[in-house]
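= Protein in question =
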Amino acid sequence: MPINIKVNKDIGVDVQSPTERDAARADIAVDIKPTVGIAINRNVVKKEGKGNFRRAINGDYMMFSHGHIDIMILVEQKKVVAFAKDMINDNVYGAETRLFDYLRKQGLVQYDSIQGGNIYGSMEAKILKAHKSIKKPMSLVLDKINEWIQTEKPIFNSLDAHDDMMQDNMLDPDDEHATELGEVPHEEEKGSILTKNLFAPYLYGRYTY
């Protein structure tokens, strides 16, 4: 007797029971690390340092680390002023001239504003108006002055060392530059003018002459 067989077409749907689906699953551990984007600007140079300066109550900057001059940055007036530290001499004028020549070449002060200040022995100059791209012009001026002071240290250190050497030679000379007399005793009377006899000068005033 013939047997009729019905063949169903594959419609592409995979029918699975929940148990079959769980058995086919594989546990996969995925380690996800967040990525951080870093933008590097090659044109920016960050310098870290410590400048020796103070601030006055009105906001002005004062720098005292130079050996011969004191420097002030007047914020409101936009000026750089240099004063003599102790006394006026050629070293002070030379240091002031080098300072403002350096600031002029760095493009920080107005060239035709460099002049003597209203205080004796001082020198001053106006700070140029900063471009809008420069956010902190006063910090830039402070940084450049501090750089200049670092270049000046060998100069005034050598001058101070020379002064100390000359003082030591005078007060505590070595055997080669010392005499053999040692300590000279103090005499009761010294010099050629007698002061205790009858004809001593100034004893009788003008009648002696």
The first helix runs from residue 18 to 24.
